[in-house]
Amino acid sequence: MTDLSYLDGNMLDGPLREVFAVDLSATTGRCDTCGMTGPMAGLHVYSHAPGLVGRCPACSGVM
Ligand SMILES: [Zn+2]
């Protein structure tokens, strides 16, 4: 991936609030590609994709 213009996972708070009634910003997830675990706020979010795409900060796998 050559374009490194991403936002941190905290920017997902607003869009996810439209779908979920609970705050998911502190939720821990696990990457299926590399197995890294971490908070959703640590994801790299690409907003110039179709919609918002959250990627693992370690391997860039789509979460
Ligand atoms: Zn990963």
In short, what is this structure?
This protein is mostly beta strands and 63 residues long. It is built from 1 helix and 5 strands; from the N terminus they run βαββββ. 8% of the residues lie in helices and 22% in strands.
What's the helix-strand series?
EHEEEE
Largest sheet: 3 strands, antiparallel
Structural class: mainly beta
Counting H and I runs of at least 4 residues, what is the number of helices?
A: 1
What is the mean pLDDT?
89
Strand order of the largest sheet: 1-4-5
Q: Which cofactor or ligand species appear?
A: zinc ion
Shape: globular
Sequence stretches where pLDDT stays below 50 over 5 or more residues: none
Tally of extended strands?
5
Describe the protein.
With about 60 residues, the protein is mainly beta. The protein has a domain at about 5-50. Helix content is about 10%, strand content about 20%. It is built from one helix and five strands; from the N terminus they run E-H-E-E-E-E. A three-stranded antiparallel sheet has the order 1-4-5, with no helix packed on it. The chain has a two-stranded antiparallel sheet with strand order 2-3. A hairpin with a 6-residue loop joins strand 4 (about 45) and strand 5 (about 55). It is globular. The mean pLDDT is about 90. The structure holds zinc ion (ZN). Zinc ion binds near residues 31, 58 and 61. Zinc ion (ZN) binds near residues 59 and 61.
